[in-house]
Amino acid sequence: MSKFSYGTVLKIQREFTLEDIRHSLESMKEMGMNTVVIWPAIYWWEDRMLPHYPFHTGRKILEIAEDLDMKIIMELEGQVTFLEYMPDFVMRPEYFAVDPDGHFTNKGPNYGVVNYSHPEVRMLIHKTFSEAAANYKDYSSLYGYDIYNETRFESYDSFTLQAFREWLKEKYGTIGKLNDIWEKTYYDWSQIQFSNWMWASVMPVVDYNQFKKAYMGMILKDWAAVVKAVDPHHPTIADNVYASVSKDEHYSLPQDDWNVAESVDEFGISLYPKNDAVGLSPSQRWQTLSGVHSASREGRFWISELQSHNVAMFNPFSVVHPHHLRWWCWEAISHGAKGIIYWKWDPFTKGVQTMGRGLVDTRGNYTVRALEAGSIAKVIHNHEREFTTYDRELPKVAILYDKLNHDFTKAYSRNHGQKLSDSIYLDSLAGMYDVLWEEGIPADYVIPEEIIDGTVNMYKALFISSQVNVSHELAAAIQTYAEQGGIVVCDGRFGAVDNTGMVHRVMPFGQMNEVLGYTFEDIDPEGLDIHYGERDNYLHGYYERQILQVYDEAVEVVGTFTNGDPAILRTPRGKGQIVTIATFLWYGYFMEKQDSVRAFVRELVSEHGLRLHRTDTFGLKISTLRGEDGLLVFIMNYGAEALSSEVRLVEIPDGNCEITDLYAVTTCRVAAKHGDLMFPVTVGSHDVSVFKVRFE
User: Fold this and answer.
1) pTM, to two decimals
2) Least packed by Cβ within 10 Å: which of 220, 238, 278, 447?
């Protein structure tokens, strides 16, 4: 049986002795941990006379781990390059990345990002990665290599510019085609420069941001190939920060979970829910995890860094209590995580993060957080088969995430003044996810390719928000999805341009406009109130009222603005339908959290049967993993008081089910009838209950 990877990062300090390191690993094992990420993996401070310099310490750590039957992940790139492949004695100023003004990025408080495109930097990375793999590959304690923790790269140097030109050449084929789309008059690819000019066409900026994401994948594949050439047997790992779908502040890194996940064997993220006083709300954490699960190969992902305590000395707002770790771990596992690594084992003793982080204190004593981590480890160990083989139960709702649309909305929103956030796209997705989460409706994310290839057909409903660009292929795929019985719900500015930034003559969808049966005519910021349904229900639109003209008699107007114009349209297509909401509904919910929007979603969910489970107590949230012989049910209470409720699970085989509380280790039997299983629960304040439901 495979093991669930559960452990922490041990940042190796030069003052550590091998006895110190052994003691730390022994303490981790005592807490139920089986995996340790070692960083750095190269030790330039070692005595140069030691055998295998600068890998002597790493080899000794792997020997200690063999004695303890623990697995080691060697982190080869952790953003502090002078501890890795770029020691100070080989560093040169021209190795740094270059900012848009042509300056090297070595002026800040951090070390700076090196230029991965520079041929000498690339050579140093290749040399060090291959030597690390050669030194570590034969140890039975080696799990694999984290080749890039928290991926990021941007540089405006000549080498990266040449890579950008080659990417453009592959995309467009001819300089004439690029000129048509960019509104340029080049006659050779060598004339292309980095540019923020968008007056005539947004595509120079959109293409550059697309290139940045693609280039990160190219870099990772290059590094992975170097490691695999020496050690083809151990996996490569790379990690992003949070998720592409959830944190617009990381847009410039760049952030593309799907690209990174397909470039390595194992995909992980860093998750720091309490970096400041505000932090991530529960719904934002669930959205992050849903996005990462959706981007991962077969839904398998790691939390490669999970916040263990406060960020730094003078940040009490980031303090971590035991119940936070309980929430965060079970949230991740309930969304498909197959590995959890805390950042980090002990507090920082020097540098800008001094006294930050740590499951143990500066003396190596267990803290209350370490004890909580141990209690989680015990539950995982006792039911390892389920935690390693069960996958997230398939939701009935999918949400479209399109990285190209993200780039378009970023580009277009630069010219809106102060009226609209330039993160409207991710804010809209966050508002949509939040209202679904409040109503207890799980959701996955799909990308346009998964709509076009039919993968989306496994979901009953597809939610689309502020999807500015819709190609002919995507419009046709949306039509096919609806005809086969899918429910499409769309809002915001929809299908205005194609994938080259050219506006559709007829909006939405251009030549595929008949899919919708109405046309977009104009916009107005007035009269946003919407009335819908037989009981004259009320919604309030947000930011703009779209003026739509219905021409297909089959299209039903189910909601109107105060002036009588269509506000909510239902377009029947085959066995399904397309619902259009002519305003920024989800962005409005993100900004104002109107109860009327929740009521609207509640009716939509009920009408189309989009629930997997429910409780009769609002404060409890459920996530489930499903396996061949049952379910794992995670019930979260984020409130300060204990809550009791009856839990209802759907699509359960009729007959007796054995229900085991994995913390209390108590068992009862309940019969499922007509596909429904109901049982009572009480979840303590700030607590999580985990149940195994076994089908008998």
Assistant:
1) 0.95
2) 278
